[in-house]
Design brief:
Structural class: alpha+beta
Helix content: 10-25%
Largest sheet: 3 strands, antiparallel
Strand content: 15-25%
Order of helices and strands: EEEEEHHH
Oligomer: single chain
Strand order of the largest sheet: 3-4-5
Radius of gyration: 22 Å
Bound molecules: zinc ion
Distance between the termini: 51 Å
Number of strands: 5
Number of helices: 3
Shape: elongated
């Protein structure tokens, strides 16, 4: 599939979670990479209100019911916890079985 080049598009089309090229959008309409398609942006304003994610002519931005429009990047900076990936749960590694010489002989 050929993807037509779109010139003049802002370079802001990067995933806000990892900075990689955004190739899709999450459910909020935020450009994200494939990996973060399911991620939601739950951002809070400095005033304590939840921020609305909105999409404008120039890309996504936040809206606070008290403070009004807030720059997307600024909103993300206010909410560093969003981009912090939760430490992936490592599956418990099964302990390597060390065979005793007797056991090895049976193999
Ligand atoms: Zn990403
Ligand atoms: Zn606010």
């Amino acid at each position: 599939m050929r993807i037509p080049k779109r010139y003049g598009q802002s370079k802001e089309n990067v995933c806000p979670f990892c900075g990689k090229n955004a190739v899709t959008e999450n459910k909020q309409g935020i450009p994200v990479c494939m990996k973060h398609k399911e991620k939601f942006i739950d951002a809070k304003c400095m005033c304590g209100n939840w921020l609305d994610v909105r999409k404008g002519k120039f890309g996504p931005y936040f809206f606070c019911i008290r403070c009004g429009n807030i720059n997307f990047r600024k909103g993300m900076e206010m909410n560093p916890q969003i981009i912090k990936d939760k430490p992936e749960e490592k599956p418990a590694k099964p302990k390597e079985t060390i065979l005793t010489p007797e056991e090895a002989e049976l193999l």
